[in-house]
């Protein structure tokens, strides 16, 4: 198969021929029709993820495509099915999975991290009966690929972890793919959304996604601006980027008894959090890590009903040959970038 791979962390990313994967007895092989360019893939390439121990490595973890082959133990799927997957692939049998919390599975695997990912023609997915999600015939692969990480993660962060309610104030720090998704979902839930970013282009996309108030993060104290706009602070604030600065600003943006939701991955090292404010205002600090496959139907129904439009967040589509350069420059193009096959079928 053709795939984008790197031999050293932070080194060159190039397209090369690599061996085709084979399905585990419980797994499946997916022929990739679209895969997203995500900041988490950048962290993988930089060596920030301890799950990547063997090089060369193929990044990519949000994908949609067609089942190419299934293992001998798979019962619910046949080749030819149109599917997507959550980026956290659960085992289906640990204590967390038994409780329905597959997004924090104790034996989870993640394409692009625990094994080769989806910047490739083919990708292996474990425990297919637990993790594959059928696609509606009228949903494009590009739209579906954007659900597996950013949009589904934002959906759970807003609706289930942040418990955003109509009329509440929501601040979203970082208007990349996750942030724009969170803005769209919170707006659809009836919240008033403040978008925070240092890019005017990103803030413009945030307005299109449903934000009604805007803060230029490069112009002074972003948290103070959010507190002023919301007359005391947001009910829920989401760090969708993942940096010490955005994490602290998100916590400081909250009103009394507000909820901070950390979605963006933070690199190693110290992350100062104003814990005095957490204690004094009884703030809640929450993490949100993807969404289990069984939890997709409400999100899919909102998309089908026209309440959510994840396709509108895609601003660029590129081929596999351009994926390496695009990953190196991630963040320079607002919105969501999708990689689609450059080869004939």
From TrEMBL:
Organism: Nonomuraea glycinis
Superkingdom of origin: Bacteria
Recorded family membership: Belongs to the zinc-containing alcohol dehydrogenase family.
Keywords, in A-Z order: Metal-binding, Oxidoreductase, Zinc
A Pfam match: ADH_zinc_N
Cofactor(s) essential for the protein: Zn(2+)
PANTHER family named in the record: ALCOHOL DEHYDROGENASE-RELATED (PTHR43401:SF5), L-THREONINE 3-DEHYDROGENASE (PTHR43401)
N-terminal signal peptide: none
Domain named Enoyl reductase (ER): residues: 10-339
Name of the protein described by the UniProt record: Alcohol dehydrogenase
């Amino acid at each position: 198969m053709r795939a984008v791979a790197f031999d050293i962390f932070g080194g060159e990313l190039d397209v090369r021929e690599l061996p085709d994967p084979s399905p585990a007895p419980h797994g499946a092989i997916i022929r990739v029709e679209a895969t997203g360019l995500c900041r988490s893939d950048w962290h993988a390439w930089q060596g920030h993820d301890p799950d990547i121990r063997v090089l060369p490595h193929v990044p990519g973890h949000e994908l949609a495509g067609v089942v190419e082959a299934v293992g001998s133990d798979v019962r619910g799927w046949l080749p030819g099915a149109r599917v997507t997957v959550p980026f956290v692939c659960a085992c289906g049998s640990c204590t967390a999975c038994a409780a329905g919390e597959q997004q924090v599975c104790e034996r989870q695997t993640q394409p692009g991290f625990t094994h080769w990912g989806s910047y490739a023609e083919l990708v292996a997915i474990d425990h297919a009966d637990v993790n594959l999600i059928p696609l509606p015939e009228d949903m494009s692969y590009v739209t579906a690929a954007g659900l597996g990480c950013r949009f589904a993660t934002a959906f759970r962060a807003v609706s289930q972890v942040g418990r955003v309610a109509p009329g509440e104030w929501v601040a979203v720090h970082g208007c990349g793919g996750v942030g724009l998704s969170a803005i769209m979902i919170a707006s659809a839930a009836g919240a008033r959304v403040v978008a925070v970013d240092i890019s005017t282009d990103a803030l413009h996309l945030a307005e299109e996604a449903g934000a009604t108030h805007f803060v230029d993060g490069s112009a002074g104290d972003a948290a103070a601006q959010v507190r002023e706009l919301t007359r005391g602070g947001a009910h829920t604030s989401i760090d969708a980027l993942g940096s010490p600065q955005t994490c602290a600003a998100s916590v400081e943006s909250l009103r009394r008894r507000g909820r901070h939701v950390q979605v963006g991955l933070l690199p190693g090292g110290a992350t100062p959090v104003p814990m005095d404010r957490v204690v004094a205002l009884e703030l809640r600090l929450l993490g949100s890590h993807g969404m289990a496959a069984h939890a997709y139907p409400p999100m899919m129904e909102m998309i089908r009903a026209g309440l959510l439009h994840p396709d509108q967040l895609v601003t660029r589509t590129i081929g596999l040959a351009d994926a390496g350069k695009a990953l190196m420059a991630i963040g320079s193009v607002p919105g969501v970038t999708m990689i689609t096959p450059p080869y004939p079928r």
